[in-house]
Structures are given as C-alpha cells and as structure tokens.
Specification:
Blueprint lengths: L3 E5 L4 H12 L3 E6 L7 H17 L5 E6 L5 H10 L4 E4 L13 H19 L13 E7 L23 H20 L3 E6 L2 E2 L8 H11 L4 E3 L5 E2 L2 E2 H13 L4 E6 L5 E2 H12 L6 E3 L14 H7 L7 H22 L1
Parallel strand pairs: 1-2, 1-4, 2-3, 4-5, 5-6, 6-11, 7-10, 8-13
Antiparallel strand pairs: 9-12
The structure holds nicotinamide-adenine-dinucleotide.
Nicotinamide-adenine-dinucleotide binds next to helix 1, strand 2, helix 4 and strand 5.
C-alpha cells in the first residue's frame, strides 16, 4: 500500500535519490529542506527540478510536495505532522562535513541534534500534534564516522562507538541515542543507518569523487590525505536508497545497521579509476591525515542483509562510471563556461 513519507534533506544528494525512488514506486513524499549554502544551493534547486520533471514526464504514480524550511523550526515541524498523516520519516537533513564540524561544533550540534529532537518530538506527538494511530517509522541517517578509530574491523553495529573523533560524528552518535530513548519511552520504531562514503550522480561537491574531477577539469587544489593510503567502503547512492526504502517497509523496533558495500577500496585506486575514465591525471596535493580522520572504513553488513534483505548491487567501477557520466553531462558544461 502506498505510504506518505517525510524526507528531510530532500533537495540534497541522497535525499533527492530517495524522493525519486519513493515517488516512482507510488508513495506520496513530502520533502523538507532549507536549501542551505553549505554548497551551492542552485545544485539543490536543480536536484528538485530534475526529480519533479522526471516524475511528471514519466507519470510516476506517487506524488511529491516540497516545503522549504528548517528542521529546527518546531512550529513548522508540528504543523507538518498535524496537516499530514505521515507513515515514515527518512531523516537526512544535517550538516554533513566531518572536517568543517571542527570549526563550528555549535552549528553541528544545533542542526544535527536539536533538529533531530524536533522531528522525534513531532513523531511521537510531543509538539501538540495528537497521534491516535500508529506512530511513524523513524529512519535516521548516521555515519561510519561514529566508529572513530575502532580496532574492530570490519565495523559492527554492536561496537560501543563512544570515542568519536569530530563534532560531526559526536552529534550523529548523540542523535542515534536519542532515537533509542524515544523508542524506549514512546515505542517509536527507529532504524539508524550508518552510511559508508556515499557517491554517485548529484554527489556533494565537497566529496572526493567530485573533487578529483574538479581538480582535473578546473585545476582547483585538492588535498590527497595520507597520500591516498586510506581505505573507504565506497557505497553507490542507489544501494543506500534501497536500504532506506526497505526500512520504510519493515519497522524493526530499534536497530542500528550499517549501510555500506562491505568491500573497502584504497583511495589511490578509487582516484585512478576516475582518472582512467576522464582520460587525464589529477594533480592532487599530498597532505597528512587530519586528527579527525580515520585510515579505513569497512562495513559489516550481515545484520542489514538479514533484517532488510539488503544486497548492494553496484560495484565501485560501475558506480564510478555512472558518476563520471553524470559529471560530464551536468557539471562539466557549467564548469567550463564559468
Ligand atoms: N554522503 C555521504 O557519504 C554520507 C555519509 C554518511 C552519512 N551521511 C548523512 O546522510 C545525510 C545526507 O547527506 P548528503 O550527502 O545527501 O548531504 P547533502 O548536504 O547533500 O544533503 C543534506 C540536505 O540537508 C539540508 N539541510 C541541512 N540543514 C538543514 C536544516 N536545518 N533544515 C532543513 N534542511 C537542512 C541541506 O540543505 C541539504 O540539502 C546526512 O545526514 C549525512 O550526515 C552522508
């Protein structure tokens, strides 16, 4: 049966893909995003336009309604829950930069923790919105960064994760725990997903895949941390969306699950793959690893497989090829004229 899903961060990278998939399968989606300037908001507006035009051109059965607003605006969030019967919330809106969070930890806590709290309060009816029926399922986007420098490899969701290395990771871990509290106190179904380095079309300009191509084509300076000697469990955005959608359909009580691919790739190999597709070499600046960084990420996805039938479909070479195709069609024409 079609559901009504609130997607926060709907205009962003992962959010726009989640909206697309849900509308395509027939759900009604309410998107909330404040279109902040963490990166160029015109990219987010373009994401929204693309999703809306695909939905109408291809006559997808679901519907998409977008609201520009801030998750910290408790009145706005309360009104959303009064005006709509929401079956699930995919909560992606956040300040998402690990390194930048060191410069502005207060903002990261305000958006990531207080914003999440406003949504949790609304979901359980604490903002004056009476819920007489079943509570919505709350799906929260956390991060592999919460594992810090764990020595348990691959990373397992049962790890205590009490030593985050950056305010971003600490804010996500705090929100994961709030999710548990609301599950315990109010019976809210809450699935926490720890995403592992997501990439793909509409990718964030501050992330490595994008920056390598920008370096090649616009010559902008890009640091290569630890001389590329870092492993990342790169995960294609459509695989992440499959996990999110499965969680909409399968409330699990309270669970923490990894959403990765489970096959880490060396950063230099990832960069080489992009260079081969572009047919040119990047000139990256070798830079020591930052204190907030980790040398490897590696997801154990066995629990996600068994609870949500999650099975990543896109290999890193396939995903990088799709990313390159998008970059050529969408980003390159505008970078070369600007
Ligand atoms: N991309 C990754 O590799 C990755 C890895 C781990 C976790 N995550 C998490 O996934 C989620 C989505 O990340 P993304 O890569 O799509 O980032 P993104 O920046 O493209 O998307 C986040 C969106 O949230 C919106 N937003 C930020 N603050 C808001 C607020 N106060 N109110 C309303 N909207 C707000 C932004 O405008 C943006 O469109 C984030 O929670 C992020 O922490 C991403």
């Amino acid at each position: 049966m079609a559901k009504t899903v609130l997607v926060t961060g709907a205009a962003g990278f992962i959010g726009s893909h989640a909206v697309e998939r849900l509308v395509k399968r027939g759900d009604r989606v309410i998107g909330l995003d404040n279109l902040n300037d963490y990166y160029d908001p015109s990219r987010k507006e373009a994401n929204l336009r693309e999703v809306s035009s695909k939905a109408s051109a291809q006559k997808w059965p679901g519907a998409f309604e977008f609201l520009k607003g801030d998750i910290r605006d408790r009145q706005l969030v309360a009104d959303l829950f009064s005006d709509h019967h929401i079956d699930a919330i995919i909560h992606l809106a956040a300040m998402a930069g690990v390194r930048i969070s060191i410069d502005d930890p207060g903002l990261y806590y305000d958006v990531n923790v207080m914003g999440t709290l406003a949504l949790l309060d609304a979901a359980v009816g604490r903002l004056g919105t009476k819920r007489t029926e079943k509570l919505p399922t709350f799906i929260f986007a956390s991060t592999s960064s919460v594992y810090g420098n764990t020595q348990t490899v691959p990373f397992v969701p049962e790890d205590t994760c009490d030593r985050p290395l950056a305010p971003y990771a600490a804010s996500k871990r705090a929100s994961e725990m709030l999710g548990h509290t609301y599950h315990h106190l109010y019976g809210l179904d809450c699935t926490v997903f720890r995403f592992f380095t997501v990439y793909g079309p509409r990718g964030r300009p501050d992330m490595m895949a994008y920056k390598v191509l920008d370096n090649i084509f616009t010559g902008c300076d890009v640091p290569l941390y630890n001389n590329g000697n870092m492993y990342r469990d790169w995960t294609y955005v459509e695989d992440i969306v499959s996990g999110l959608v499965s969680a909409v359909d399968h409330p699990l009580g309270y669970e923490i699950l990894n959403l990765g691919r489970g096959e880490p790739v060396l950063l230099t190999d990832f960069v080489t793959g992009i260079e081969q597709l572009a047919g040119r070499s990047a000139k990256l600046t070798s830079t020591p690893m930052m204190d907030a960084d980790i040398a490897y990420t590696f997801a154990d996805i066995s629990k996600t497989r068994s609870l949500l039938q999650y099975e990543p479909q896109t290999s890193v070479p396939e995903g990088v090829a799709k990313f390159w195709e998008w970059y050529q069609q969408v980003v390159l024409p505008s970078s070369l004229t600007s």
